[in-house]
Amino acid sequence: MINLATLNKLTYGLYIVTSVDQGRCNGFTADAVFQVSANPPTIGICIKKDNLTHDFVAKAQVFAVSILADTAPAELIRHWGLKSGRQEDKCVNTEYKTGITGCHLITKDTLGAIECRVVNVFDAGSHTIFLGEVVSAESFSDGEPLTYAQYRKKIKPALKQTDKKGDAMKKYRCVVCDYIYDPALGDPDSGIAPGTPFEKIPDTWVCPICQVDKSNFELLD
Ligand SMILES: Cc1cc2nc3c(=O)[nH]c(=O)nc-3n(C[C@H](O)[C@H](O)[C@H](O)COP(=O)(O)O)c2cc1C
Question: At what angle are helices 74-81 and 156-164 packed, to 10 degrees?
């Protein structure tokens, strides 16, 4: 018998794993992060093969793990975990510092970050396991790390609730440059607060990337 629900009782933390490709950053929300050895200190990560970050790590052979605090907002987890860098640049509007590997270390809502150079790669079916030797590790703040159990109990239901708010929270895409307006994030740099539906944005607003007006946006399915 294989009762897959039993696997939900395994325990993890929650992280943002980032990598870099020719100066471009990308990253994703991850729970499958673990220390595999002490000497040399080595971290393992599992990445789904069709994630953009998978291609970045496979090519650059470096990655960074930013450790989420238990105070991290649900929207941050959605931002990195429920959309792909293939659709939009997820690294804009994030607070970060650049590590010695060139990876972004996320500095807001995190406790610290660890950078690694890949030393081994294993095929695991849908995912690839990358083992990375630690080349830097830095604490940003005290506090408690977010666990996957907390995510399942509090954050996942909150994200579902936001999704249920329905059409008012629909995303729109700029047909000129492919920028996606996400009402949950708004466009704070242009004075549009998070939570503002596309329809409520003033007509004077322009695409933050290519500067065309609202009429150039289409509803995303
Ligand atoms: C809570 C949570 C945990 C996740 N853990 C992993 C993980 O360990 N490995 C993985 O490949 N994807 C994981 N994902 C899914 C990726 O974050 C998601 O597919 C992301 O959109 C990939 O982004 P990218 O295509 O820009 O790399 C997780 C998502 C969430 C919400």
Answer: 80
